[in-house]
Amino acid sequence: MALYRWQGRNREGRLLRGEMEAVDRAAVTAELRRRGIRPLAAGIREKGVGMRREIAIPGLAPRVGADDIVMLTRNFGVMVEAGVPIVECLQVLADQTGNGTVRDALRAVRLDVSNGVTLTTAMSRHPRLFDTLFVRMVAAGEHGGVLPEILARLALFIERSARLKRKVKTAMLYPATVIAVAAVVVAVLLLHVIPVFAEVYRGMGQALPPLTELTIAVSRWTYQTV
Question: What CA–CA distance (Å, rounded) separates 158 from 207?
Answer without folding.
Answer: 65
